[in-house]
Amino acid sequence: MNAAGPPSRLREISRSRTLSQPMEKAEEEERNLMGGGSPKAETGEEAVVRPRDGSSQESRKSSSSRSSRKSFRLDYRLEEDVTKSKRDKHGRFINPWSTWKFPSYGTLFRFFLLDKDHSQVPSSKEVLDRELPVLEPYFVRNPRQVGQTGSGLRVTWLGHATVLVEMDDLVVLTDPVFSQRASPLQFVGYKRFRDPACAVAQLPRVHAVLISHTHYDHLDVGSVVSLNERFGGELRWFVPLGLLDWMQRCGCENVIELDWWEENCVPGHDEVTFVCTPSQHWCKRTPLDENRALWGSWSVLGPCNRFFFAGDTGYCPVFEEIGKRFGPFDLAAIPIGAYMPRNVMQSQHVDPEEAVRIHIDVQAKQSVAIHWGTFALAHEPYLDPPLRLKEALEKHGLSQDKFFVLNHGESRELNSEVFE
Prior knowledge:
Layout: H1 23-28, H2 39-42, H3 57-63, E1 86-87, E2 93-94, H4 105-114, H5 125-131, H6 138-141, E3 153-159, E4 162-167, E5 170-174, E6 181-182, E7 190-191, E8 208-210, H7 221-231, E9 236-240, H8 244-249, E10 255-258, E11 263-266, E12 269-277, E13 297-301, E14 306-309, H9 318-326, E15 331-335, H10 342-345, H11 352-361, E16 367-370, H12 384-395, E17 403-404, E18 411-414
Parallel strand pairs: 5-8, 8-9, 9-10, 14-15, 15-16, 16-17
Antiparallel strand pairs: 1-2, 3-4, 3-18, 4-5, 6-7, 11-12, 12-13, 13-14
Helix pairs in contact: 11-12
């Protein structure tokens, strides 16, 4: 961060500790109120940050194979026109755009109890296997090929918002959810109708995990604990403000908590920058913690590739800001599902037409569809998202390879020779 910038809320945990909490203890912690950021930051006390070795712009330029790519400054929060995170008088984060309107209690009542659910997910496994096959990821059979992308990028969709991205000598995992239910309890709540493409134990070495927000279909305690048990302090977690304490209670040692437009890196990979960028959404895990944590998207900026992870979001003007500052992106992961009915979902979940607008706004060369085909979170027919995506692409004169759909477990390699 710039020394002249505002006091940072970024906090890093890098101390030796053993994982002593079992999963049951972590689940019990769900009932506790999450804080709205680090206590030190709230009192104005500066947080401790590990120095970034070799973080100068010159070192980035010398290591880049694409010197014509746009450069970026260390702290865009200093610009007047950037959309900064905001809180209300109670200290809860808010969406600063006119496009945000949370549905009324009456609308929510109708959605959960009266509206007809048109998702029509088949109960037959045979039908689901035919319509939405789950493939074994390539890295289960050929683990030695992980990271062998040269100057290219490889993406593997593992289900819902969980993607594995290999770029610039790093393996990055987004919103890992490997449990059967998106719920605080594994015997009730939204149950996935397509299994994860692999288990945590089958993953390759992961360097970084990106968390977009706290909802159960994006932040799963069982998956966090399992990843931490496997990789420990070598795995770096990037989370928005307000999630650090929760991650600590799960035993995670190496956590970076960021505000919108703050950045950091993975130790030993300073040439790849991780920036927490805005999105339009909200957070809640318990009756008392609504919007105590921030939500966001992520921009991963490397010398050879740039990756944008939209997380979970409604459409708003901020994506043009992101594209202006960090585009073009070689790949964006953008949600296309859980969008009906619109009077409930519009502010928080884009539909396929709006997903294409995000693709254009962030200046993505290619995008992969996420947040569909796994959990029936809303009322659109379960196979509609890719069909409407195709129609939206045709409307904008874009080919389907510009915004593509993968099977669960399927990979695609970009900017390099085709992966076989």
